[in-house]
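Quick one:
INPUT:
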């Protein structure tokens, strides 16, 4: 278990807030969120998944694409991203929509990066289309996949 445990907290009716600290400077953590070759190494969810496609055009109005696949190729998911605001290395605001629209529309994600004493705290605020969708996401196991992804990111940041 990482000593930097992820905290996931429902906020209001439609929002989830996720907080996680990393033992690395903010510039390095920010870079790991915006470089496709790094994202493909850590943002994988549960073990046994890969991200064969990751594109990131990091600018307001820029687009991104993420595609995940499990080891035997029997399951996968994909989504499109539109970047709304970039303040490097402090904040990224983007929207995302899954191809198989299980979240019933677009979600808006604000990711904040704050550094103190060489340690970076990432706070991600995700706003969903409705309370029903937010509650469905909370029950989906997404928290376990994100926690495992952040453990992989810890390993990348140590190198």
């Amino acid at each position: 278990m990482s000593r930097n445990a992820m905290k996931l907290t429902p906020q209001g009716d439609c929002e989830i807030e996720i907080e996680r600290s990393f033992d690395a400077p903010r510039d390095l953590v920010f870079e790991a969120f915006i470089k496709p070759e790094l994202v493909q190494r850590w943002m994988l969810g549960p073990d046994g998944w890969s991200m064969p496609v990751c594109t990131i055009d990091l600018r307001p109005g820029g687009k991104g694409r993420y595609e995940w696949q499990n080891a035997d190729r029997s399951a996968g998911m994909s989504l499109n991203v539109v970047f709304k605001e970039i303040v490097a290395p402090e904040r990224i605001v983007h929207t995302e929509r899954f191809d198989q629209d299980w979240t019933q529309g677009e979600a808006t994600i604000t990711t904040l990066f704050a550094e103190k004493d060489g340690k970076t705290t990432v706070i991600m605020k995700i706003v969903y289309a409705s309370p029903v969708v937010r509650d469905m996401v909370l029950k989906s196991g997404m928290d376990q996949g994100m926690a495992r992804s952040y453990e992989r990111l810890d390993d990348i940041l140590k190198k």
